[in-house]
Structures are given as C-alpha cells and as structure tokens.
Amino acid sequence: MRQKPSLSVSSMVPSNRKSIGIENLALLEEYYQRWKKDPTSVSADWNNFFEGFEFGYESLKNGQLEKKVERRAPTDALKKQRAVYELIHAYRTLGHYIANLDPLGFNQYEYDELKLERFGLNQKDLESYFDSGDLAGGGRRTLREILEILKKSYCSTLTVEFMHMDSFVQRKWITERIEGKSFHAGFSKEHKKQILYDLLKAELFEAFLHTRYVGQKRFSLEGSCTLIPMMDALIEACPAHGIERLVVGMAHRGRLNFVANVLQQDYKVIFDEFSENYIPEGVLGDGDVRYHLGFEAALKTKAGAIVTVGLTPNPSHLEAVNPVVEGKARAWERRLKDTEHRKKVLPLLIHGDASFMGQGVVQETLNLSRLEGYTTGGTLHIIVNNQIGFTTVPQDGRSTHHCTAVALMLGIPIFHVNSDDPLAAVFAVLLALEYRQVFGQDVVVDLVGYRKYGHNEGDEPSFTQPLLYKAIAQHPNISDIFLDQLIKSGEMTREEANEYRKIFVAELNQKMEESKEWIKQENPPTLRPRLSCPRIFDPVKTAVPLEEFLYVGNALVKEPPDFNLNPKIRKILEERKAMVEGKQPILLPFAETMAFGTLLYEGIPVRLSGQDSRRGTFSQRHAVLYDTKVSKKYVPLANIHPNQAIFCIYNSPLSEYAVLGFDYGYSLDYPEALIIWEAQYGDFANGAQVIIDLYLVSSESKWGVTSNIVLLLPHGYEGQGPEHSSARVERFLQACAEDNIVVANCTTPANYFHILRRQVLRGFSKPLILFTHKSLLRNPQCASTIPEFVQGSFEEVLADPQVNQPSSKVILCTGKVYYDLIDYRSRLGRMDIPIVRIEQLYPLHEKKLKEIVLRYQPKSLVWCQEEPKNMGAWSYMFPKLNDIFSLPVLYAGREASASTATGSMAYHRLEQQKLLSDAFGR
C-alpha cells in the first residue's frame, strides 16, 4: 500500500505555475512552517493563503484530491490579528488623506476607511498586544503603539503615497526609511541654524522687494519659503551622490528668490532689473521680464565640491519648460559620458500645483521618463503647492484629492509635506534625491503651503477668497514658527536671529544703493537695432569628395551579414546600390540617408526622433532593418565606419509638444550634433505650437539662446484631406523676423542633402523649418545625380533649367507644386514660360532672386501655390515681390478657405487643375 504523502505547500503548486522558481518554493515552505507554529508570525495575506490551503483539504492521495471538508472558522484572536495587518496596510495606502499638510488648517479630513471600527477593532483593543508584521522593524506591540507609529509615519506633517508602486523592493525601501523614524532627528544644530538662515533670507528678501517696489510683479514665494532651505540642502547633498550638474526648470513663483538665495546672483543685478530704465547688458534682442530669465551658476558646497546649476529660461506657459529641461539634461549626460548609468546630471522641475495637474505636457513629459530615446535617469519634481491657481481653488481645478495624481502613472513615490515644517521638508527632499539615485526613476515632493499675496503683487486676492486670505494674514511666518522651536530646544536665541536679520537687511540696502547709483550713471534708454545675422547667406561648403560619397553610399546599401532580410527591403537596398553606382538617379529618401551618413563619417553625431521615424511615415526611410526570423535589428547608419560619430533614431511616443520640447532642449546643450524632430504629417506641428512659438522662434530675441534644431514637416496637396495636406507654412512665415529661423522647401534631393549638411557646418545656429514631401519621395522627376552631391552647395533660389530666353512673365513657386506646373506646362507646350523655385523662403535671398528673375525680362510675375490664398506663402511673398520688382504680381492658387484643404479627391483635382490653369492662362 502506498504511503500517504506528508502535507507540503510546495507539492501543491499547480504544474502550470512552474515559473515560481525553486528558491520561491523554498521560501513558501518556510513561511508555511512558520505559520503552523504561530499564525501571527506572517502577514495577513499569507495567513489567508495558508488557511485556505490547509482548511480546504483533508488529505492528498496519489496526487489527487480525495475529500473536501468544511472550512474551520478562525478564532477571535486570529480575526483581530488579521484586522491589525489590514489596518497597517490601510494606513500605508490611505494615511496621506488625513495627514497634517495644510499650514492654514483648512484641509483637515476624517476618513472612515481608517477608523478602528472599519476593521472590527475598538478602543478596548488598544492595550492588547499584536504582531506588527514588518512595521518599523516588526515585533509584538500594543495596538496603541502600532497606531502611534502609523499616524506618525503617514499622518503627520510628512506623508508618502507609495503603495501604488509595482516594485516590492522599492516599497520596502520607503517603509524602512519612513516607519518609526523621526523626520526631525538626524539634523545637527548647525544644519538647523542654516535652515533658519535660509528661511530668513527668503522671507526678508521678499519683504524688501514688497516695500521697495510696491505693486511690481515678482511672484513672491512667501508661504512656501521652505523651498529655499530644501534647495540649499539638495545642492549640498549632490556631490555625495555623484551629481555634478543640476538642470532646473521652474515657473515664476519664487524664481527671483531662487536665483538670489540659492544660485547666488548679485542682489544688485536683481534690483537693477526693477528699474524702469533698465536694459540688460549684452542682450541684443527684445529681452524678457525678470522672472522668465535663465541663470547659470557654479556653486561651491561646504565640503568644497562644485555643483553647476543651469536654470532654464522659460515663457509664461508654465509647464512648457518641462521637456526642454529633460532634453538639456540628456545632452549633458552625453557630454559628461554618463549615458549608461545616468547619475551625474539631475533634472529638477519645480512646478505649481494647478499647472502640474492642469497642463497636459506634464503627463507627456512623465511618459518620456522611461523611454529609450528620452530617459534621463529620473527627475526630481518639487511642487510649490499654493493650494490655489490664480483665483481658482483646487475643487474647481482638479478632479482628484492631490494635485500629484497624474504622477501615479509612473508607480513612483510621492512625498507630501507641510511647508510650516522645514525639517520634514528637507528630510523629504533628501530622501527623494536618494531614491532617484538608487532607482533611477522620477520622484515627487509636494510642498504644501500657501500664497501670501495674490497671483501677482498687483492682485487683490480677497475679492475671490476672503476667508482664505483672512487666515493667511493672521498666520505667522515659517521662520517665526521654526525659530520658536529652536529657542524652545535651546539651539538658538532670538538675539542671534535678530542679529542675522539686521546684517542681511543691511546688505540688501547696500546693494540697492549701488543699483541706484548705477542706474543714475546710465544713459537714457535708446532703441537698439534689430537682430540680424550678416553671415546668413554666406556660402557653406557642403559638397563631399567623391571617394567619401562612394564609401559611405556602399556601406549604407550593404546587406547585413547573418540577417534574414525582408525581400522588399532587399529590393530597396538594390535600388539604392544602383544609385551609388550611378546607374539610377538619387531620390529624396536616399539623399537624406546620404546626408546623415556623410556627417556621421565626418564625426558629426545625428539624432532623429519622431512618430514612426525609423521606418518613415511613408515607408521611405528604413533606417532600422528588422530580421524576419529572429528578434534582432540592424542600423546601416550606425555601421559605416568604426570611428564614425553616434547615430540615434527613435520612434517617439504619440506626442508632439513634449517630444519637440525635449529635442529642442537637447539641441541647446549639444549644438555640435544634427538634431531633428520629424512630424508624422506636417499638421502635427499644431500640437507642438507652444514650443514653436514660445521657444523655437523667439528664444534668441528673448534670452539670447540659439538652437540648430531641424523640423521635418511633410507638406503638400495630394487630396488627403484637410488634416494631412498643410504644415501651415503661413504660421512659420508670420513668425519670421530678425533672421530668427530658416524656412525652406527643397525640390531636389541634392538641395535637401546640402541644406541638412549646412545646418551643422555653417558655424552658427538657427532653427531650420524644412517642409518635406510625400508624393515626391518616389517621383522619378524629383531626382539628382552624383555630381550634384560632390559639387556645389545649397541653392536658395533655383532658375528654370529648361527655359533660358526672355519671357513675358515668370511663375514663382515653392515646393511640390513645381512638378505639377512643369507637367502642365509640358502638356500645354508652353516652354516659353519659366518657373522659378524659391527653395528658402526665409530669409529670402532677394539679391539672388532678383538676379535670376530679371534674366527673363518679364513684364509680370505670378505667384503660384497649392494652399488657399489666406494660407501658404502668398501673404508673405506678395509685399516682398512688390518691394523687389516694379512689376505686377498676380496670384494663382486656391481661394481663401477656413479649412486647409477639401476632403473630396474629385474637388481637390478640380481646384488643382484651376490653379495650374490660372498660373499659365493670364
């Protein structure tokens, strides 16, 4: 007779769960044996599991279930113990809802889910002993002690949301540092004094500005001045964590205070900026208001280490700076050769509470945090939580309890801290910094304070929040609260604090006097000449030697070894090989590839990101090849030469705003590379308009910041409807002034090749808006030969290659419509009418245009475009053509329209036929 098997939990693991692993089965067995001896020695979850396991079966025989028995009812003690485990879990999960976070005391909550009765416990159980699981090191404690630990850990002036985190290791890391710990313990007397001095500086600086510059906007930090000692402690801690550089983005609130008291800008300079006659030195453009400007500082810590801090300039569009900071941080990681571990550079984003929840770019940027082409090793987010946005209270501004809810998507810890408790706040930011360095992920610190004045100092907040601002007026300063604590503990005297106040205010007064003297000595302000770039039309050598062209071309068309290539891709490589061999002309897609390849061969890095950019929206690029049988890929542009520069190409998430912001930021701090953002279709630039308007086209004028980023925007009317026809040429041209950007639409592969190379070889930076093509990608007429790549350079204006004799009129155009015009001209047999292409719309090379047009001795000009009359380049070109030529300028194109294009293919063709007829028929 076969022996009855002994009951073993590991033997009960179903055969379809073999992924558990041997080591975990052993651990399971160990827990089971512990539970049999003492059910309270394991957590509530394990207790439930083992009860079901043991009570569900009476015996096992031959591996089969023999007989089921009724489940035994757990004892009252077991029920209570289970309830305690559930209570601990509930406080870890929900304790943040009833934490003491509001300095004003308004937002105090009760939460039924945390009442003892909810768990079957009552006041009589408070002195009973229970196992506390892994709470604060574990052990048997009274329920009263357990509750005290839980409330101190999760319901005091500092709390944390962390039970949503996927990682058990990370949750354990949090509990070990929070539970049973005193957030105030670990601070030396000297550090506490430094925190007080930081608070005094912050508050006195704001009060000084408030009384000396009455009514002027400064976006005061008062009510959240704890931010300053937090930042001071953060920077002091950076060297110990291996951090060499902080890249900072923040909106207006507290920016002047941050620059003055953390980044140590001379107070005199700040006072200068408040003068009505102030014109900043060295700014050649229009400049910007003082609370938008960037700043660069090299800060020396008390230990003698240097931490560089770059505060990124930003517009009024609040969170728009977020992706720009991430791009800059990633560029610095490459610059510091830290692309593997990403520990040397810390992106720091300081948000407002209303904007963190209200601005969609916050979510877009958070989503970038773990993507291959955009990760920066984690960002430290600090929210200056005023509990109000302009005049909008939280219940009108968000549908969630906390303003941080959007960050839950990342499964990261979110620390909430009362700004009236500066020790807890400093503790939180240092813990957050440590978490970022250990786990390489984002982390959020929500500093809950208030706003002492209105949104700006000219507002009257009591109009809309009378009760709130009555409470604020009666609330003591944070420094006074903290000073009272230090006096009570004997670590500080009021006399010491008053002496510090006296010295600091004296310094501010001295700097103000220096500022007044400086302003007096300055001449009255005068208008400056507009920005210009005298070198903008200088020719740039972009041709490559034939030997280099052929070497790079052959490397790019080579079939990778040991690779199962898709037959259609093999055909594309064969076609491109014929182009390298001169057997076929070169088309646009391969011209782009050759531009990238030759730059890489010459040691210039290339980064391209966009939606589906690896393959290309129109299946034209194929920069990454995929094996058809095994999971591997091959990147021809990364395999040209062993000593080539790095090539990066990424399929971006379905985001335009954040991704363009990221690539723009990257281009600012890595200008030696060719940085490209590609829209899936040109109209997708609509989603990135904030970055285009507030950064890309205006940053040089506002902040003296230049970028060489390239925007590839597919544009052209092929009957694809209103959404995928136009990249809104008119919007970019409307934003053109002071040689701020370059706007181009290349109609030959060679010109496309040369303008891409020119972007990084010309010696200065200007953003390039490049309208690219769809139907022309495979149009055999849109082709160039090898001599055009190894000779010449980019041509801003192209004469008609087929017409040389004088003509009564000249048709001017830009982009793909040129090929429609030459086809129509050929059918008409009107080879006497020249068609001149404007390849670079801005800056317009007027001298070259005039020289080419006047060759034909025309009596009139026709501007032909596919776009409606109120769009495209017509409104931009018409006054310019009138200024350059003393000739009638006629229009041939679609009628003005509210929509960019028709959705009907039949109607599109009728419109296209009419504009071509109009161009030749007048």
Q: Would you give an account of this structure?
A:
With 922 residues, this protein is α/β, with parallel strands linked by helices. The protein contains 30 helices and 28 strands. An 8-stranded mixed beta sheet has the order 5-11-12-10-9-6-8-7. The model is unreliable at 1-23 and 55-70 (pLDDT under 50).
Keywords:
Helix Hairpins, Rossmann fold, 922 residues, alpha/beta, 4 domains, 13% strand
Rounded mean pLDDT is 91
Could you name the ranges where pLDDT drops below 50 across 5 or more consecutive residues? 1-23, 55-70
- The rough form would be described as globular
CATH class of the largest domain: Alpha Beta
Largest sheet: 8 strands, mixed
Radius of gyration: 34 Å
Q: How much of the residues is beta strand, in percent?
A: 5-15%
What's the topology here?
Elements: H1 22-37, H2 44-55, E1 60-61, E2 64-65, H3 76-94, E3 129-131, E4 140-142, H4 143-154, E5 158-161, H5 168-178, H6 189-212, H7 227-237, E6 245-250, H8 255-261, H9 267-273, E7 295-300, E8 306-311, H10 321-335, E9 345-352, H11 353-358, H12 360-368, E10 380-385, H13 394-397, E11 414-418, H14 422-439, E12 443-448, H15 466-474, H16 478-489, H17 494-521, H18 546-556, H19 567-580, E13 586-587, H20 588-601, E14 606-610, E15 625-626, E16 633-634, E17 647-651, H21 657-669, E18 674-678, H22 689-696, H23 699-703, E19 710-714, H24 729-734, E20 742-744, H25 749-761, E21 768-772, E22 783-784, H26 787-790, E23 797-798, E24 809-813, H27 817-828, E25 835-838, E26 840-842, H28 846-854, E27 860-868, H29 874-884, E28 889-894, H30 905-921
Parallel strand pairs: 6-8, 6-9, 9-10, 10-12, 11-12, 14-17, 14-18, 18-19, 19-21, 20-21, 24-25, 24-27, 27-28
Antiparallel strand pairs: 1-2, 3-4, 5-11, 7-8, 13-22, 15-16, 20-26, 23-25
